[in-house]
Specification:
Blueprint lengths: L1 H12 L10 H13 L1 H18 L8 H4 L1 H19 L30 H6 L1 H19 L5 H15 L3 H13 L4 H23 L2 H8 L17 H9 L3
Helix pairs in contact: 2-5, 3-10, 3-11, 5-7, 5-8, 7-11, 8-10
The protein binds 2-acetamido-2-deoxy-beta-D-glucopyranose (2 copies).
The site of one 2-acetamido-2-deoxy-beta-D-glucopyranose has 7 residues, from helix 2 and helix 12.
């Protein structure tokens, strides 16, 4: 009875202004990570486009990156909600108080308790960095898998490009075709096989997306201190986080 009364009184004593990463702070930090990931994602797409050209459509070097646009568009549409959820309710949430008392440094500027405040995001920055990386990798990986609509659009574009010849090949093809129009029936299995090869090749290339993102981030998919050095942005991100009350 005494204990519960004490807790009730402490609870009532919580000041009206609760410092927490809410509203603008949540939106701002989520968008900042998504924005910062633009460059590494672009590097990944460049690499994938190069593989597609080298292995599947050497005659279409200039267009290869445009075939990947559906993945970037889908990522742009779906990345926000997942990132906000991964960072905030899933990990950084709640009050920092322990038995109704704020530990030193809490809620700001450097709070050694996992809670929903800027100070906690600062103290656990390497975890925050890993959550942002993991989420980005997870979503890009899903979009780059054969089950996604974006993937199907990419596949259609690459298969079509692989069967549409460059001007030089077209000339050769026309010469060949004028000699052998009546062998088209025999050619169909070849066309089908070629299409299946392109599809398999694309699948193998797209499978490398998560590894390529890890490479672009400088390695180490962990919460460790020196992990993901190129996807940390600590110098600009920490002051930005602390700009929220
Ligand atoms: C990362 O985000 C922070 C906060 O919005 C910004 O100041 C910084 O310029 C961004 N860095 C990159 C490389 O986009
Ligand atoms: C990585 O992200 C996915 C998708 O949000 C999540 O299900 C998974 O638990 C995360 N993994 C870690 C180790 O945080």
């Amino acid at each position: 009875m005494w204990i519960s009364l004490r807790f009730t009184l402490l609870f009532l004593a919580v000041p009206a202004t609760v410092f927490a990463c809410e509203g603008e702070c949540i939106v701002g930090i989520t968008k900042a990570f998504i924005g910062n990931y633009t460059n590494p994602i672009d590097a990944v797409m460049d690499d994938v486009a190069k593989q597609i050209v080298t292995q599947l459509v050497p005659q279409h070097a200039a267009e290869a990156k445009s075939y990947l646009q559906p993945i970037l568009t889908a990522y742009g549409k779906s990345s926000y909600d997942g990132m906000e959820t991964a960072i905030f309710p899933s990990y950084f949430h709640g009050k920092c108080q322990q038995n109704g008392v704020d530990p030193a440094g809490c809620p700001n500027p450097d709070c050694p308790v996992v809670c929903g405040t800027p100070g906690s995001l600062i103290h656990f920055y390497s975890t925050l960095r890993f959550i942002a990386y993991n989420q980005t990798s997870h979503v890009l990986g899903l979009l780059s898998s054969p089950g996604s609509d974006a993937y199907k659009q990419v596949e259609r574009a690459v298969v079509q490009a692989a069967s549409s010849p460059s001007p030089r090949m077209l000339l050769r093809y026309e010469r060949y075709n004028s000699e052998a129009t009546d062998t088209m029936g025999q050619n169909m299995p070849y066309v089908k096989k070629r299409e299946a090869n392109v599809k398999n090749g694309l699948q193998d290339i797209m499978k490398t997306v998560p590894q390529l993102l890890l490479k672009a981030c400088g390695g180490q998919a962990t919460e460790g201190d020196g992990a993901l050095p190129k996807c940390s942005w600590e110098d600009t991100m920490k002051p930005y986080i602390l700009s929220f009350p």
